[in-house]
Design a protein that fits this description.
The chain is mostly helical. It has one domain. The protein contains 14 helices and 2 strands; from the N terminus they run H-H-H-H-H-H-E-E-H-H-H-H-H-H-H-H. A two-stranded antiparallel sheet has the order 1-2. Strand 1 and strand 2 form a beta hairpin.
């Protein structure tokens, strides 16, 4: 029911927000939401921290961009190839990396993200190096170009709803229960005969695929990409969105992404202090709302229900 209500709200929101600029801001919030939904499953349910998802975002963007501009392939085909390539890379990275835990895993994924960033800067002939490349074609669906802010909005949030539906089904399935067991105690889960490595790799690959789809959308929406959009800062921002929203639920990822995605517009007049404000918000949430915005909303709902 909650997902249905969200779908209706998102479908009707452009009636209120008609300005193309603000619709564009919401489009980017939707793109980031695709990544954080997958990242929240990895962090909140499997208990694994990744600081390299900007790398998967970049693989999706560059694969799709290069195939369409230099290979002449249609965007939808490029999307599928990007997903397949990202899944393979995530599997190859995940199998050895997910044997590590805690900060060691975070450092391993951080290293992967930096390798991707350095490779993109160094591959001048293929990717344009630090300058990037443009003229990436728009997405066409049924012969219609997805180029207006409104059409991009509906495409992005249709994919967000699909990603949410898939993630919620996984969370409430046997796989979701296994992931929660691993998060609670990986040693206990292993002692019970659970193949913890398989489940961790599966959710790692799934979260990477979400990032790849977001990257492909990003490339075809702005039609120009460069390595500067896929650095460590972006990976840290994604993790921060999940933490602020609350890692205990994929709904928390949406809350955190919406807050940090829209906050720059609110703080436009305080641009010189935006980093300080972001830090203060994160500090306050970690101190007073360790479960994030979603945890706070749950507690308020329980209190209201108890009073009534």
């Amino acid at each position: 029911m909650t997902l249905g209500i969200l779908a209706i709200v998102l479908a009707l929101l452009p009636v209120l927000v008609r300005n193309p600029y603000y619709l564009g801001v919401l489009v980017f919030v939707g793109i980031y939401s695709l990544i954080t939904i997958g990242l929240s499953m990895l962090m909140g349910y499997a208990g694994q921290i990744s600081l390299g998802h900007a790398g998967f975002f970049a693989i999706g963007a560059y694969t799709s961009g290069l195939l369409t501009t230099k290979g002449g392939f249609p965007p939808l085909f490029a999307f599928l190839v990007a997903i397949l390539l990202t899944a393979c890379v995530a599997f190859l990275i995940g199998v050895p990396s997910l044997k590590l835990r805690g900060h060691y895993l975070a450092m391993a994924t951080l290293g992967f993200g930096e390798i991707v960033h350095i490779a993109l800067n160094a591959s001048v002939d293929l990717t344009g190096g630090p300058s990037g490349f443009g003229e990436i074609p728009r997405i066409a669906l049924g012969g219609l170009l997805v180029e207006s802010a409104l059409s991009r909005y509906y495409l992005v949030y249709a994919l967000v709803i699909i990603a949410l539906l898939l993630s919620l089904n996984i969370v409430h399935s046997r796989v979701g229960r296994a992931l929660r067991s691993i998060h609670g105690s990986e040693l206990a889960a292993s002692a019970m005969g659970m193949n913890t490595a398989r489940y961790k790799v599966q959710v790692f690959v799934l979260s990477a695929i979400y990032a790849s789809v977001a990257g492909s959308l990003y490339a075809h929406f702005i039609t120009f990409i460069s390595p500067g959009s896929f650095d460590l800062t972006f990976s840290v921002l994604l993790v921060t969105m999940v933490v602020i929203g609350g890692m205990s639920s994929v709904w928390g990822a949406l809350m955190g992404t919406a807050l940090l995605g829209l906050l720059p517009e609110v703080l436009r007049g305080f641009k010189d202090y935006d980093i300080l404000i972001y830090g203060a918000i994160l500090l306050l949430i970690m101190m007073f709302m360790p479960d994030g915005l979603f945890g706070l909303s749950q507690r308020l709902f329980v209190r209201r229900s108890a009073r009534s």
